[in-house]
Amino acid sequence: MDLNDDLYIRFRDLLLRRAGLHYPERRRNDLAHGLGQAAATCGLTSLEALYQGMVENGTIWDLVIIQLTIGETYFFRNAAQFTALRERVLPDLMLRRGPVRSLRLWSAGCATGEEAYSLAMTLADVLPAAPEWQVSILATDINTHFLQRAREALYGNWSFRETSEAARERFFTPEGPRWRLKPEWRRQVIFARLNLAEAVYPVVTNGTVALDLILCRNVTIYFDEATTRQVIDRFYAALAPGGWLIVGHAEPNADIYRAFETHNVPGSVLYRKPVNAPAFVTVQPNMPAVALPPPTLPPSTLPPPHFAPPLLVPTNLQPATAPRPFNTTTVAALVSTPAPAPPAPLADLLAPGRAAADRGDWRTARASVEAALSVNPLCAAGYYLLGQILEHLGELDGALNAYRRSVYLEPTWVMGNIGMANVWRQTGHLAEARRGLRSALYHLTRMAPNAPVAGADEATAAELSAYVRTQLELLNK
Ligand SMILES: C[S@@+](CC[C@H](N)C(=O)[O-])C[C@H]1O[C@@H](n2cnc3c(N)ncnc32)[C@H](O)[C@@H]1O
């Protein structure tokens, strides 16, 4: 199929605008090849038809993305960076997060999962088993086929090219010629679709706020510079003060990272959001900068630390609707007006709280959502948001109550059930966690598969069902 000049320019612009993927003239042949394969997969006989299908942003778009993205990856890729993680980054975070014993990590552009699982395996050696740490590892990618393979966690020898045999034996079980990650490590990572080129992060509902570490390696090499700048700026906002960013080797434009501190370590460069960067109130007390400790933590054979899913949710993460103007006066005005005012739309009432939560300002978010709930105490979405905020504040009992109320107010509010299951799992109440997930599944299977689920950032019923089933399977192992 011929990719003529006109079509080349249209495909190039669409891919750049929607996914940040950059196809300059020198990569035109790669693009033509990928598009030809995608058209064949879709049973289309012309690139024009493929283009029209992509514009609609549905299955055809996904299939093209599956065809064009490159998922080259392996466990413990770039040994120097994993050494730095073990010896500098994680010990630093453990000192800083010691008072709350909680870590939030994100593998952005995770491909088939090796990077995120390498993080889980590294933490197994670095974190003490007791007292327990709450760890969440979020792993996202734009390619749904890669995500599916990541969840299956079944790998061939090529993925282990930098992994010792001892580590492979410890973390995996052989299945024919391949190896499957053991369930206790699989359940530590939550996989979700997220297009880094879209303005869908940092946002509290998808677990991309107040992060301690972001790994985004060998991803922005496919983007143009403007997209890369936007992505790095968003990562900066998504990190808590003192949070670390690790990018791949082939991403040397230092100016893009100018807001970060630069830390040179043998064989790599790491970035850190300054400890004293303007911060909203977060879970941990403000701590002074600390000297990085020497690498004294020996490999541990203790049981894995307790992992908590991100305040999740495996959302579809389509572009958010245009952000509503931030109306700081809505809640205050409603609360202070004695006479009953005409009720504000619920979304407006919650908007300031949601905005505060999205920027990690948990205490403001809590006050704002509680004020909104005092105006409209029958708002399931409000209680669900409050539950997420309280989880961030470490108030798990309060979070559980808030989730429970959301379900009480709207029995089909499945995100409330999922929230409860999260808390129960974190507190070791596995039977209750299973019950919450089953209840969510019950309602999800009664919805049209492609119906968006309230409170889940447009994730569909089918997508959430798949997520809930995996969680149940992992809890049952
Ligand atoms: C080469 S892999 C990198 C995997 C892993 N981070 C590593 O370094 O081993 C690049 C990944 O970036 C993903 N990717 C490309 N464009 C993306 C976008 N706009 N949003 C999210 N992920 C994207 C691809 O699907 C692919 O899985």
Mean pLDDT: 83
What share of residues is helical? 40-55%
Structural class: alpha/beta
Please give the order of strands in the largest beta sheet. Answer: 6-2-1-7-8-10-9
Low-confidence stretches: 280-341
Shape: globular
* CATH architect. name of the largest domain: 3-Layer(aba) Sandwich
Bound molecules: S-adenosylmethionine
Look up the CATH topology of the largest domain: Rossmann fold
What is the tally of beta strands? 10
Straight-line N-to-C gap? 49 Å
Tally the helices: 18
Q: Which CATH C-level class of the largest domain is it?
A: Alpha Beta
If you compute it from the alpha carbons, what radius of gyration comes out, rounded to the nearest whole angstrom?
A: 23 Å
N to C succession of SSEs: HHHHHEHEHEHEEHEEHEEEHHHHHHHH
Query: What is the domain total for the residues?
Result: 3
Strand content: 5-15%
Largest sheet: 7 strands, mixed
Pfam families: CheR (PF01739), TPR_16 (PF13432)
Protein name: Tetratricopeptide repeat protein
TPR repeats: 380-413
GO molecular function, one term: S-adenosylmethionine-dependent methyltransferase activity
